[in-house]
Structure formats: structure tokens, C-alpha cells
Amino acid sequence: MLKKLLVAAVILSSVVLVILTIDSVSKLTSSSPKITPEVTRGKQVWQDKNCINCHTILGNGAYYAPDLTKVATRRDRDWLISFLSDPSRVWPGTSMQAVKVTPQDATDLAEFLTWVSGMDTNGWPPKPLKATSTNSNTQKTDSNQGGQNLIAKGEGIYGEQGCSACHEVNGIGGKVGPSLSTIGKNRDKVWLNKFLTNPQEVKPGTPMLKPRISQDDLTALVEYLGNLK
Ligand code: HEC
Ligand code: HEC
Fold first, then answer.
1. pLDDT category, 137, cuts 50, 70, 90?
2. In this structure, are residues 135 and 185 in contact, taking their beta carbons and an 8 Å threshold?
């Protein structure tokens, strides 16, 4: 009896191994998009122009500006080319200064960024704020369910808006702006609402941009921040 069980176990695990191997191999072959000469040149331009002084890609670079590993899933090729040629024309009020690039550079950079975005990075980069969803700070102050939902929604919006590129909450995020770990202690919701509606009006000259979000999303974001204590 024991012997039969053992044999069955060995057969079963061999089958599982074979299936896993086939699965990995098929992923390996499908995860490398084709490297064209434009992609190679784009990588060269990426290096020459020091984009990583501000951006990260595949874990390398600085945290001043958004991670670009998956940028082509948010932005199409034409948008990227126009943006790189003249950032503020495509994105009024953007905090990215124009980098001197030729039209060919811009096209090659777009090809390179699109190529990188096509790589199977196994979920990299991690969503910066997932870790804070177990954050006890956001849970203790508001015990009613509706409030909790709004806070959770606000936390999601904080992540989507890329606030963590510049701000840190409980150790996660950038250092360009002040830490927001206890922002709810220092600023009330009325102030937060006013500031996020128009940062420039509240703090003239602040480098912080007005988030482009709906009124509902803003309310949720304020609820989330106001409860970080
Ligand atoms: C001095 C810092 C700096 C440098 C250098 C820089 N960027 Fe940026 N970049 C930014 C900032 C900040 C943003 C975010 C813009 C905003 O939020 O208004 C940005 C945004 C972008 C975006 C849009 C990201 C998105 O999520 O929509 C792309 C694409 C981009 N940069 C590509 C590049 C490339 C390619 C280079 C090199 C040629 C480069 N950047 C150099 C600061 C920089
Ligand atoms: C490009 C970097 C950058 C991004 C992205 C950014 N911020 Fe800021 N933020 C700053 C800087 C810098 C300050 C400090 C402004 C000042 O004091 O003039 C600031 C200030 C703030 C303050 C006020 C802090 C205080 O007590 O005075 C809040 C609240 C805030 N940011 C929330 C957010 C939220 C929410 C997001 C996402 C929607 C966000 N920020 C995105 C750079 C950024």
C-alpha cells in the first residue's frame, strides 16, 4: 500500500515538474520582444541624456520622477514622441523640463521605452503603496465601514496618481516632497482639500502640481490623507 502511494506521488510530481517546465520555457520565449536598431539607439540616447538622473527603469535610477519601466502601457508611442520633443506642449504644467533631443532621438527613445514596457518583468515595478493597505494608522481612526471604503479608495488614488514618487508614507516613497506619514495630524481635511484643489494658491511657488482628478476622487484622497496620523 505504502509503496503504491509512493509510486503515485513520484508520478504526480514528475507530471507537475514537466508542466511547470513547459510553462516556464513558453514564458521565456514570449517575454523578449524583438530588439530593433531603433531600440538599441534609443537605449544609447537614454544613457547619453541621463534620463536616470530623475527616472527609474527596471530598478535603476533616481526617484525624483515617475518609474518608466511600464510607461508605454500608460502612454502610446505618438504621445511619447511628442512629449519628449516638447513636454509642456503635450502636458501643460508638467514638471519635466524639455531635454534637448532631435526628432530621431525622440522616436528612438519611444521605441526603447515601448520595448522595455513589453518585457515580462513579473510584476516589476511593484505597486508602491500596496504595503500600506495593512497600515494600522489608517484603520484605527475611522471605524465605520463607509469611511473605511473611502479611505481605501483614497489610498488607491494616491497610488494611481504617483504621489509616492515624491512623498513617503510609512517608509515607502520618494523624498522630493515632505513625508505624509502623519499629515492628518498637521493638516485638517479642509486644508488638504484646498491644497490639493490648487497647490499654487495655498503655497505660491510650490513645485507640487495640481492633481488631475475628479471631485469624488479628491474627496477620497483627502479622506485617506486626513487619516494618516
Ligand atoms: C530633471 C529631471 C528629469 C529628467 C532629466 C528627465 N525627466 Fe522625464 N520626467 C520628469 C518628471 C518630474 C516627470 C513627471 C512630470 C509631471 O508629473 O508633470 C517626467 C515625466 C516623464 C514621462 C511621462 C511619464 C508618465 O508617467 O506619463 C516620460 C515618458 C519621461 N519623463 C521620459 C524621460 C526621458 C526619456 C528622459 C531622458 C531623455 C527624461 N524623461 C529626463 C523629470 C525628468
Ligand atoms: C513631483 C513631486 C511631487 C508629486 C508627484 C506630489 N507632490 Fe506633494 N509636494 C511636493 C513638494 C515638493 C511639496 C512641498 C511643497 C512646499 O512646501 O512648497 C509637496 C507638498 C504636499 C503636501 C503639503 C504638505 C504640507 O504639510 O505642507 C501634501 C498634502 C501633498 N504634497 C500631497 C500630495 C499628493 C496627495 C500627491 C499625489 C496626488 C502629491 N503630493 C504629489 C512634491 C510632490
1. very low
2. no
Distance, CA of 130 to CA of 191 (rounded, Å): 26
Burial 186-216 (b: 16+ CB within 10 A, else e): ebeeeebbebbeebeeeeeeeebeebebeee
Residue of the CA atom closest to atom 13 of ligand 2: 177
Cα of 213 from ligand 2 centre, angstroms = 15
Asked if residue 111 lies in contact with residue 39, where contact means CB atoms within 8 angstroms, the answer is yes
d(CA 110, CA 228): 38
What are the pLDDT digits (tens) for 150-189? 999 999 899 888 888 788 898 888 887 889 999 999 999 9
- CA nearest neighbour of 228 among 186, 191, 192, 181: 181
